[in-house]
# Entry
Amino acid sequence: MEPPKAAVPIHEKPLLTVEEQIVHLKSKGVTFDSRTEAEAADCLAGKRQFFKATAYRKLFDKHVGGEKDGQYIDLDFAQLKYLAGLDRRLRDTLLPMALDVEHFTAARLLKAAEDNSEDGYAVMRDYMESVPTKRRKYIENELEIRSSDAYCGAVIRKYRDDMPIWSFVEVVSFGTFIGLTKFCANRWEDGELLASHYLLKKAKSVRNASAHSLIGNFIRTLPTFIRTCTDECGDPIPRCLSLEEKWNRRTDRSAGSGKRCRAAGGA
# Structure
């Protein structure tokens, strides 16, 4: 006698087909005036992940009471699509900035090592001895895993037993590099480098967020007109001024004070 099959759990939020996603959005009050349902389905099928695109609905108000209770007010799919595109463009801007902070801090760290007459090896031995056992094992495991990496594995294998600081900063994670920066700043009593350590911690958060989907919460701090600009294809969202028009109004107001802002096509 075969054992009874385990019951398949019924989830509150099951996986939806693209067609079911459209139906779900409509039930929440999302309209398809600027983008047809067919265009939205094409977008969700291969261009915009449903969970990510719909996350921005939280930025919009809902009806309270009446037959539309709980449905979103004046929310069109084109607006969700635009915000998802804005998310991508913002991440594409922030990620290189965060990586530049890491790069130039590494250069600053190596220059400080030279200024403090380090040979590059003793400082690393002292650093590894200074970290708690659990953290040291983490770093050693990190290097072990990366020793087979096609890009940095050769460097790790060559210097594994006595790695100089200039090699270490190139092969470890951002978090490990941050810890080394703080150790060196304290070792050399370098206030500027210590300040860089705290900047790195913020840059790491920005980098991690930028590598994924960041803006669901961050965008709440942006001006509310972000909700009412053109979508990424340039088509105006109903009842809204385009981003270009709003930008021009802002720059026109600031022109008298001699301020200049970088805009698309600007200097």
Q: What stands out?
A: Residues 62 and 73 are 5 Å apart (CA to CA).
